[in-house]
Amino acid sequence: MVRPPRECVILARELGLAELPCERCVAEHFFSYWRGRKGELKVPAGCWVAHTALTALECARMRARLEKVVRRMGLTWADVEKLAVLHDVGKLSEAYARYGFRGLRHNVLSAVVAYRACGRNITITRAAFLHHEATHWRDLYRLGVYQHLTDSLSSSMRRLVGRGFRLRDGYVLALEGLANLVDHMGARGARPVLAFLANEDFYQMNPSELERKLGRLTWRSMALYWILYLADNRAASARETSRAYWLDAVRRLPEEARGPAELADLILGLRGRLAHISLTALPSSRGGGGRGWSSPRSG
Fold first, then answer.
1. 75: Cβ contacts below 8 Å, ≥ 6 apart
2. What does the DSSP assignment read for 206-240?
3. Rounded-to-integer distance, Cα 160 and Cα 88, Å
């Protein structure tokens, strides 16, 4: 029996499920990232369904603390849920399966899909574009959106977007698995987007039009991106080792600290990016939206 990706194991545990409700594992074809250090041969790894569902779960955990802020910006929590399921949708494309190991900017493809799937909602489209695992949000402030746009829309990406790209055969099965999971979480805002994706597998956009749409940084899109950045990186920490999942690391700290000052030092000393993603909007024991999760370990 093939061992499931670590993301799947952690997701099932956090949702309080004995196993994930996937009729068939799609991780081999719809993986969540290319694993390998610089200079090494990269190989497909992880599960797109599990990572996307974990991202949606991390968003749900922040809902009680952030929803009022989101509403004051003129957005809805459904916008956050839509972004959560769309942020990596470019990874379902044939182009990502073929060229992702070369650093193909899946965020550009995700933005094109989001523009169509969300009825040309430019805020969600821009937030999907701004996201990229290798880019820290502070670097976007430092470099500016124009530089990010220039780096992302290379001549090859412009040709790909202008020519159009297709989602891989069988992608609907991955969407169905994700839909079951977001339904379990109660993330209703994601459902219309998933229904749209299931009926549309080809996406195309004039590169100049895309550049115009993405070339203006707005505070709404930046705020949505910031929420996604936090949720996405928390979800991605499940890929690394059995002890690296960010919430497990945080849960261990009170047992290791002898007082508040030492606890603060331990949090700040978390390895790598864990410190950056563990200090904001910590989930309460009742999970997102004020309702309890079926798993006692969900927050």
1. 123, 220, 223, 224
2. -HHHHHHHHSS--HHHHHHHHHHHHHHHHHHGGGS
3. 17
The single-letter DSSP state of residue 200 is -
* Structure token digits, residue 127: 């937030």
Q: pLDDT (tens digit, 9 = 90+) per residue, 95-122?
A: 999 998 888 899 999 999 999 999 989 9
- Lookup result for tokens 């790598």: 272
* CA–CA dist 260, 265 (Å, integer): 9
Q: Which residues of the chain carry a pLDDT beneath 70?
A: 1-2, 133-141, 143-145, 242, 270-299
* Residue among 129, 125, 126, 127 at smallest CA distance from 114: 125
The residues near 167 (Cβ < 8 Å, ≥ 6 apart) are: 92, 93, 94, 197, 201, 202, 203
User: Exposed/middle/buried for 263, CB within 10 Å: 0-12, 13-18, 19+?
Assistant: middle
The pLDDT assigned to 238 comes to 92
**Calpha distance 259→58 (Å, rounded):** 28
